[in-house]
Amino acid sequence: MKLVQLVTGSPCFGGAEAHVRDLTLGLIGRGHNCSVIVGAPEGLFHWQLRDKGVPVIVIPPLQKPLHPARDVESLLRLMSVLRRLRPDLLATHTAKAGFIGRFAAKIMGIPCVFTPHGQSFINRKHGHIIKHRLLLELLALKCGGTTIAVSEAERQLALAHLRIDRARITVIHNGIPDCTPERRGGDGPVRLTMVARFDQSKDHCTLIRAVSALNQLSWELRLAGSGPLLPTVERFAQECRISQCVRFLGECSDVSGLLADTDIFLLISNSEAFPISILEAMRAALPVVATDTGGVREEVMDGENGFLVAPANSSSLAEKLSLLIKSPQLRLKMGDCSRQRFLRNYEWNYMLDRTEALYAGLL
After folding, report:
1. How high is the pLDDT of residue 124?
2. CA distance 180 to 284
3. What is the pLDDT at residue 185?
4. pTM score, two decimals?
5. Any bridge partners for residue 36, and if so which?
């Protein structure tokens, strides 16, 4: 098959970009011809794809904020690229690319698949419906195509609010390629790691508040990622007087290497769809402490391979972290459970099999 993956993208590398990268490389490995079209400016996502020989085409106006003039320009430029590439199928990812891509595919008669990676009509901080985005999604649905939900939680949101035909939406959980866990370990403080963008969908401040209550224990917190709220979180760590125990690592191009030097993985969020960062931690045989939101409970079994905590509940988070910091045996047991659960459910061949079959079925 000749395939094009279209994603809005972000200057801050995130789960959607990781998914498109891994999916593209996996499909190329199975003999398919794949190109990637992205709106975000040059960054880690582009470099990782080009390093593997994947053609990457940038459409600069395809940026996240709604802007009628730029959005029309994006549509016209996308159609021009599609005329040149002549793909068998267009796979779109994230809201803006999904909206514009489905219209372009409809006009040009190309089969189309849309993966939201988190429903855009839900306010990521408060959980309220964003009415104009809901209307836009309802409009885009009229273009036809199939929707892939990355979790059952996302599928249920779509069924509840979009009145979508059940036959047009299917769940395909994210998957990532396996690699043998490399544990470097060593003496010293227990290493806590969170890999996430610093934006409103994440809740670094609740995490900072929780670990500040653990000053009687020996730990080090590493925060990898970038984003607009990074300065705010840095200031909050100083205000809580724990900045000497918190390391801000910036964008991380070697997540596997970072997790090999980690004891506990964290993802404290306001909202999630089905985070790939948790899959990376499970692959690395780590216990996971995460906020119970979206599809996270489809990855983390509370009390088995980690703990789930309620959003914005720093006291519960501190309690769970304290249990794990104090018990190397519990960390080892939960980490082994994470690894086995990853191998059974989320190794990327399962995702590739189902996605490839869906694409072929549409053709």
Report:
1. 66
2. 8
3. 61
4. 0.86
5. 5, 56
Q: How far is Cα 153 from Cα 150, in angstroms, rounded to an integer?
A: 8
Phi, psi of 253 (to 5 degrees): -90, -10
**CATH 3.40.50.2000 domain extents, the chain:** 2-177+347-362, 190-345
Indicate the fold that domain 190-345 takes in CATH: Rossmann fold (3.40.50)
Q: Of the candidates 7, 145, 9, 143, which has an alpha carbon nearest to the alpha carbon of residue 78?
A: 7
- Strand-pairing partners, residue 267, are 290
Specify which residues 307 forms β-bridges with.
Answer: 289
Average pLDDT over residues 227-232: 95
Residue 126 is predicted with a pLDDT of: 67
Asked whether 66 and 95 are in contact (CB, 8 A), the reply is no
Q: Give SS3 for 171.
A: strand
Secondary structure (3-state) at 219: strand
Q: Which two tokens stand for residue 349?
A: 């061949």
Please give the CATH topology (third level) of the domain spanning 2-177+347-362. Rossmann fold (3.40.50)
Which residue in this structure is represented by tokens 């997790």?
259
